[in-house]
Amino acid sequence: MTAANQSVTGPVATRSGDGSALAHPRVQAMAALWGAVILNLIIIEVLFFATDPAKNALHATGKFLGLHAALAMLLQLVLIARLPWLDRRLGMDRLTSWHRWTGFSLFWLVLLHPTFVMLGYAQAYNSTFLQQASNLIGMGPTMIGFIAVGIIAVAAGVSVRLARRKLSYELWHAVHVLLYVAIVLALIHQMYEASTFTATTGSAVYWWSLWAFAGLSLIIGRIIIPLRRNARMRLRVAAVVPEADNVVSVHLTGKDLDKLGARAGQFFIWRFVGYNSWWKANPFSLSAAPGHNALRLTAKAVGETSAGLRNVPVGTRVFAEGPYGAFTSIHKTREGTVLIAGGVGVTPIRSLLEELSGPISVLYRVQSPADAVLLAEMEQLARMKGAQVHMLSGRTGVGNPPNIPFAPENLVRLVPDILERDVFVCGPPAMTDAVLKSLRQLKVPPLQIHAERFALAS
């Protein structure tokens, strides 16, 4: 192998009991979330067939799809509410992935719902689809529904991967804020149009309870908790330290930060008040384990906000939402740990190294040694903890044999007992995918694999 390696030797991990898979926080949260979804699917379908008259099969299909669209909207609200219990167990990246697929499902549901309704009316009244569309658009509640459909279609369009790559995070986020307007319009439309919403007292209580739960979850998770925490924390910039030409660390001080419950590996969504516009907020991981009155983030200049951090004045007030993410030690199942970092993904890995105990091996992938930011800190921590740090540099595929640092055989060479350890992976998507593929080939148990991808639902 031609990749350069730097190592600080330490002890070898020993196997520890991993307990029941059902007790794993991720398994518990997934069971709770999907159990709730399945239960509500059953309820709305029972209500539909019991109380929702339809003119014909096409009309019935449209109304059936509309009710499922309403449930998808409610699920979206819960997924983006950033509820601490779900977030700490499932992680923002997993919730964001579900949010994305639920969003595309919602798009097709709200598109097909009016289509089938209008086809049903056309069949019932022996008219054309376009005639029924013209008649329905002229009705207030229906027009409200069509506006909601248009907003959802725009949001779905900018979420397609090709469009997403061309948009800044800030613009993408601003477009998605319009979805809150669409959801309010959809609720008004449902109140006037969906017979299962008002057919019986029980159905009305059921639907209002769902909307109240989802709405309160969003308000509490996105407004009340952040406002209360920031009123107590009073975060300010204490120092700005360049780590490389395009990487900077921002040190923050505040009050009672230990009461946040933040853990190494998590991230916050940061706003620098008075320095950037309020809508310019970015997620950055903690690059050091949180302290009683201090936090640190480290960011690479990849956008306007992150590039401008180098010039943030000391004393700037900071508004932070979080902590978020399940990339923490609460998910550990074994005594030993492997930490794998690539690029700026080193920031949560470095904070985890500071917090973790037991046998630890760190694999740090960089193009060249000059790119290895925070390496000196990790080597110092490794000496204190008796851990191992391997810096893996060089272009992938170059050399004879080719440099493939995360091939299964190379992972086993670097960490012979990798099957007996938890593995935390954070880095660019291609690197993360390569590592996960090798871990699957090595048959590392899924509950021992923890991957953090930089993704965020609006």
Structure report:
By secondary structure, the protein is of the alpha/beta class. It folds into three domains: about 20-230; about 235-325, Elongation Factor Tu (Ef-tu), domain 3; about 335-450, Rossmann fold. About 50% of the residues lie in helices and about 15% in strands. The chain has 15 helices and eleven strands. It has helices spanning about 25-50, 55-80, 85-90, 90-125, 130-135, 140-160, 160-165, 170-195, 195-200, 200-235, 305, 345-355, 375-385, 410-415, 430-440; strands at about 235-245, 245-255, 265-270, 280-285, 295-300, 320-325, 335-340, 360-365, 390, 420-425, 450. The strands form three sheets. A five-stranded parallel β-sheet has the order 9-8-7-10-11, with helices on both faces. Helix 12 (about 345-355) links the parallel strand 7 and strand 8 (about 360-365). Helix 4 crosses helix 5 and helix 4 (about 90-125) crosses helix 6 (about 140-160). The longest helix is centred in the first third of the chain and has 33 residues, at about 90-125. The protein is elongated and about 80 Å long. Residues about 1-20 have low confidence and may be disordered.
Biggest sheet statistics: 5 strands, parallel
Radius of gyration based on Cα positions: 25 Å
The helicity comes to 40-55%
Ranges where pLDDT stays below 50 over 5 or more residues in a row are 1-19
Based on secondary structure, the structural category is: alpha/beta
SSE run:
HHHHHHHHHHEEEEEHEEHEHEHEHE
Task: Provide the residue-averaged pLDDT.
Answer: 85
Number of helices: 15
Report strand %: 5-15%
Counted up, domains total 3
Assign an overall shape.
elongated
Side by side, the strands of the main sheet go: 9-8-7-10-11
Span between termini: 43 Å
Number of strands: 11
Main location: membrane
Region (Disordered): 1-20
Organism: Dactylosporangium siamense
GO molecular function, one term: oxidoreductase activity
